[in-house]
Automatic annotation (TrEMBL):
It comes from Hyaloscypha variabilis (strain UAMH 11265 / GT02V1 / F) (Meliniomyces variabilis). This is Glycoside hydrolase family 55 protein. GO terms for molecular function: polygalacturonase activity. InterPro entries: Pectin_lyas_fold, Pectin_lyase_fold/virulence, QRT3-like, RHGA/B-epi-like_pectate_lyase. It holds the Pfam family Pect-lyase_RHGA_epim. Residues 96-317, 444-504 form the Rhamnogalacturonase A/B/Epimerase-like pectate lyase domain. Keywords: Hydrolase. PANTHER family: PECTATE LYASE SUPERFAMILY PROTEIN DOMAIN-CONTAINING PROTEIN-RELATED (PTHR33928:SF2), POLYGALACTURONASE QRT3 (PTHR33928).
Amino acid sequence: MANSSYYPPIPANKNFADFVPNMTGIPLLSKNESVQPWKGAIQHSKVALNAHTDALIAAGTCGGPVATNPGTFWYEQITHNGISPFINDGASWPVFRNVKTNYGAAGDGTTDDSGAIQNAILAGIDGITRDQNKLGTTGQPAVVYIPSGVYVLSKPLQLYVGTVLMGDPLNPPTFKAAAGFNGNTMIYGKDPNQQSATTVFYVAVKNLVFDSTNIDKDTTFTIIDWSVSQATQLTNCVFNMPSYSSGHTGISMPEGGSGTYLGDLQINGGVVGIDMSNQQYMIKGVTFQFCTTAIKLSHCFDCIIQDCTFQDHSVAIDMTSNSVGSLVILDSSAQDVGTMVATVITGNGGSSLILENVQNNGAGSAQTVMASGNSSPILSGNVADTWVMGNTYTSGGPSTGSYAGGATFTTARSSNLLQNGKYFTISPPTYQQYALDQFINIKSVDGFPVYGDGVTDDTANINSIISTYAGCKIIFFPQGTYLVTNTIFVPAGSRLVGEAWSAISAVGSNFYNPTSPVPMVKVGNPGDIGVAQISDILFTVADVLQGCQLLEINLAASNPGDVGLWNSHFRVGGAAGSKVETNCAGSPADCKAAFGLIHLTATSSAYIEDMWGWTADHDLDGGNGQNIATGRGILIESSSASNGGRGTWLVGTAFEHNTLYQYNFHNAKDVYAGMQQSETPYWQGPGFASDVLDPAPWAPALVTPYGDPDYSNCGGADAQCRMAWFEYISSSTNLFLYASGFWTFFNGNDLTNCNNDAACQTNAIDIKDSSGVYMYGVNTKSSLNMVTGDNGLLVTMNNNPGGWGGVVAAMLAED
């Protein structure tokens, strides 16, 4: 392919700085300095469970949980004793806020509830409200709970970081815009407190119905401004807008962001369902009806649409903006649409388009792909296999690749990953089918005190409670920080539910040895099969712990989705409650803060959705420097050959700033990944000391047994080569990897030279001794070599210009 200087412009209402990470957080000015977990967790002795519970378990009558489909949502009824440990008077912080019982909202379809709901969102402590910029990013968790009803809004609602806006899923409440609504946006998801969209984390909206039908259909109106980034959740919501509207938009991102995932939504009416203007995104399981345009890609370097349904649109997906790197459309269908995908032809990497298992039905010509300026469609009808427009690299093809204007490839999907002919997906569990008596609040078990206060060692009692109630009850972790000094074991039968990202945090000498790492949380033992589900929980460290593997999963699922994590994340440094935040401004060699984030062992089979594995590049709660050397991101060794023929799914994930790699597929088999987003550590590359060139400061690399890259492909002093692999693939087969966004922003913490076309990092992806590797929609920024590997495989940014630097539509290493 010929070289080209084609780079899509930044949208007119933005500039390059909007897409550059913001290096400051919200200051935590009301900090409880007495809570310092790294100084040693307080030990408490456990006592026996009460006699009634002992007898119950002994009699074997605790089997469950048992679904009885109650009329009241368990979360509304359970004891709410969550706290915010690291702010002053944090034991009194109001985590749970019922807008009716605590703040006077009526929900009667007539009363203006705007003020009551906003008061619930704003409520703070000791005269400090959440809009005063004093509580940090992580110090102000709030679940604003909306019971069933119709809540009339006359003015916008403003959310803040740490907010979970949650409705009752049994009978989802409705937010209805009043006819005289004062403004043009119903809900602002972006925190206005000195935040750019790229640092708005930890916000969730779920189990709600939004209705804008009282507003004139031709008035410019947006239901939710979702200018947010990672660790955010928008799920199980319905958007109702006027039909034949020329003004209403369901979800918009006018200030950009660095998002990962949204899904399981229904969007009806409006001129645009989702107006996407973000660095990258996965949209999964959304049903669109009667929108003029269902999805408008105003800007997206790397997007994937999976398992979505489009009905009665003029255009289902509009990607004609010239601001798209690649778009993957997977396992989706359209019915009665004028054009399924409207696009542009670039002749290079920009605006790459991949369709796989796509149905387009209806009267007329069934225009599946129509390009601007063309009088006839590029593609009509259904796509049974994989259709590609963009630069392609195939086994046996030319080493420089070739541009496909619409070529069909065979993707040999593994049956272990499929359900009803599609890649398996599942919605986040709400456990709404279970009554309150099927739940245990881990802080309310008689005789087994658990504190979650960031001071007490909760290890023994958490383990006792989980082991006692596994296969019996669902265990609720109220908001707090649960210090652990040894491994928390999660056996088959466990279901754990957090609240506004309840934190499990490691501390102590058991996690010191980097040659014999110890898991902080271990799910099952090798060979175990069963159920283990984790939702809304954060995994972190309270100290510099080079021998801490934060999460290890060994368990294989009885059925797809039985072992799963939803809206659960990792954070190393960058926040109050950890010595890493304050002691890691110098050499990364002095801050090997964790061995690794997550390890999916060979015997595991898990479904992971909406996960951010973040080693901090900046301080969320202040301005401390963060040169942190977490060893590893996600190590995937899951193999159907070792787990009884089961698959593994990564749906909407991001791993950033880890030292050796972000994603490592080692001896893996039958793995699906949709949306992988990464950034290298900002301190890596030219400009930093030679003692931290990869694999340092983790040398020697643990090639056995952890599959570490040893960087033997690099010269000893080659700083741009010795930077973290985004994706390292070795001895693996049947990998199906869609929509990758791998970004390099800095060299040695210096942004100056890392523009779109700069080569600030030598290599991005490596494939060795592997077969059946299907990669669609590969996007990189500032990496010279996009893909390297066996037999001289070399895919360069220069040969594949587009997006934010380089784009490859299809990279097929089948042999």
